[in-house]
């Protein structure tokens, strides 16, 4: 089979048209927001457990069995479990060989994991305190020991660990910062990006922040955090409302702990982090009322990220936000693979290409500028529609929809769509169209848009609105079903979160 030379236009389902999503269940809405690979089976799982129970279970990921995913990671990506020093040793000090595995492993993990919500929060925090894959010798350890380990813990703990990790210290030049010549990079980004944000500090605060951070470095031999007291600036410091005598070089680590605790508990930090989470889960422009309610949760629960996420997913503004978010390339590509139930294909040399089926993923995300940890600067990826509705991103999305629907990539081997979607001869075409759209997008489309799907399924788009009594036959399924799937995967209904 080959796709037709020309295809009808994608149904005009626009993100932000909440009335079009009126039929979506709470379970389906949560699946689309709290997972990278929302499927009909995941929606059914959430509904069976009840949404609140599923959310609570997901917020305790260590209690969720994830044997298939864990086994895949251990077998195909064993270097992900190594320390920075071990990776350096096993690669002969060519750590970039291992770092290239991280983006692929990230996508593979999202496809297989049962710990869906953890992966979403990890993604949010990855861009909040950001280290790119280009920081090859340290990024794998940072991803495992900091981002993943503390993603659902207290932000104060996460900040403490991040500022003492070689990945951050190297990426933002703090390893070379001394009392004689403080480097302002980390001191500035700590204030601007990791905590309070612009407008809440002065340039004097930046310099004082840089001085406070002097001496915090890493050992080139062990590739672990190291405090060098001789490089630490000594003397009184004032940074916003934080003051310290900073009287001895030996006291530098204790001063850093106090400083980071102050920043983590600052209301401006709470607002920035809560807004970032609200943007991920609710809309590009969450209300001030929602953000302020989350700030209260954050501050009253000791900077608990878990508490904020739980409150967010139960908030009325979240429950009413279906269709108000646009999926990032990482999301829509993962969701397409999940919908197709494409199996994994191991290869012999995992250091070069761990999964043959990952080639389409890697090439697509690189073209979009959206590979995991592939953003080159410290501000991380943006999670707003304008960043991912560019010509390049939309073109890639539509091409991937065609590739997935028609099986055009030789390494992409999936089950027939008829079996995946339960489409069979003798089914009413409108009933089948309704089932297909519900399974792939989580809700029943309005009749105006559903008619385009029924038309494609029944007649390859030649009959605008097929008669309601039209039944599917073998020719329709063989020749029209893949293009029908393509139409759904390329639609804004699928592309929205």
Share of residues in strands: under 5%
Level of helix content? Answer: 40-55%
Uncertain stretches: 1-16, 346-357
Would you count the extended β strands for me? 4
Largest sheet: 2 strands, antiparallel
Shape estimate: elongated
Radius of gyration: 25 Å
- The end-to-end span amounts to 31 Å
The average pLDDT is 91
Structural class: mainly alpha
The number of helices is 27
Q: State the strand order across the main sheet.
A: 1-2
Write a structural description.
- The chain is mainly α.
- Among the domains are: 1-22 and 327-497, no CATH class; 166-264, no CATH class.
- It is built from 27 helices and four strands.
- It has helices spanning 26-33, 40-49, 51-58, 67-76, 84-90, 96-99, 101-112, 116-128, 136-150, 155-162, 166-171, 184-194, 203-213, 252-264, 267-281, 288-300, 305-313, 316-319, 329-340, 358-368, 385-388, 391-406, 417-421, 429-441, 447-459, 474-489, 492-495; strands spanning 216-218, 225-227, 237-239, 242-244.
- The strands form two sheets. The protein has a two-stranded antiparallel sheet. A two-stranded antiparallel sheet has the order 3-4.
- Helix 15 crosses helix 16.
- The longest helix has 16 residues, at 391-406.
- The two termini are 31 Å apart.
- Residues 1-16 and 346-357 have low confidence and may be disordered.
